[in-house]
Amino acid sequence: MSGGALDGGALGGAPVDGDAGAGAEPAGGDLFAGALASEAELRELYEQPELRARSKQIDRVDEITARLIALAPFVFVASHDADGRADVSPRGGPPGFVCVLDERHVAIPDATGNRRLDTLRNVIATGHAGLLFLIPGRGQTLRINGPARVTARPDLLARLTPVGKPPRTALVVETTEVFAHCPKAFVRSRLWDPAAWPDPADQPTAAEVTHSHLRGLFSLEEVERFNVESLRTRLE
Questions:
Q1: pLDDT given for residue 16 in this prediction
Q2: 116 Cβ partners below 8 Å, 6+ apart?
Q3: Quick one: 231 exposed, middle or buried, by C-beta within 10 A (0-12, 13-18, 19+)?
């Protein structure tokens, strides 16, 4: 089975009938029962945010923000479709692969992927996205939220060449909300501490995960071959 057939068919195809657990009742009954239904109910459980947390948000890319974006090789992109179904997708490249177009707009080039286009389809449908920038070894992250569009303008794409050529499209986000996020999650998780990382022997391989979710459509050996080929040609 060729890598192209696996990529365009199984990974981007329709769900297989008879998914395990589909529609099954949770062991604890309806786990959404009794969920909080208003912000007022939520606020009864939490104190108001401190002044510094309320005041740190800006609406543009200032000099400090631009420096952080230039150092970031990784960003999570959050989006949702017209029915409110949410999605978060990772994007990576050389540090600074996300381009600051001006003080109110950043652009993320779309690199070669599995062609599902989840994020791009969501943004076209709803016009919004949220970004979370990560810098290796740094606990503080950078968050940007705002209106978003998918563009194929040649003049704009020509500015986005982190892998040596313009992408097919890019995601442009208007920076209506910009703020740094504290490092508490990284402190708790010890994410950047190699001593806290799980033993590779205890983890399923990437091929094993994909093989399990493909529900027998391809053998483990076929998935392993595809993964190797996919990584080899990812930047082409």
A1: 43
A2: 11, 12
A3: exposed
161 and 122 in a common domain: yes
Task: Specify whether 224 is located in the same domain as 155.
Answer: no
Q: What is the CATH number of the domain that holds 69?
A: 2.30.110.10
Closest among 65, 191, 90 to 139, alpha carbons compared: 191
The residue-averaged pLDDT of 161-167 equals 81
Calpha distance 106→175 (Å, rounded): 7
Number of domains the chain contains: 2
The rounded distance, in Å, linking the Cα atoms of 91 and 109 is 9
Range of the domain at 76: 51-189
Structural domain contains residue 26: no
**What are 1-45's pLDDT values in tens digits?**
333 334 433 333 444 444 545 556 677 789 999 999 999 999 999
Contacts of 92 (CB under 8 A, 6+ apart): 73, 74, 75, 111
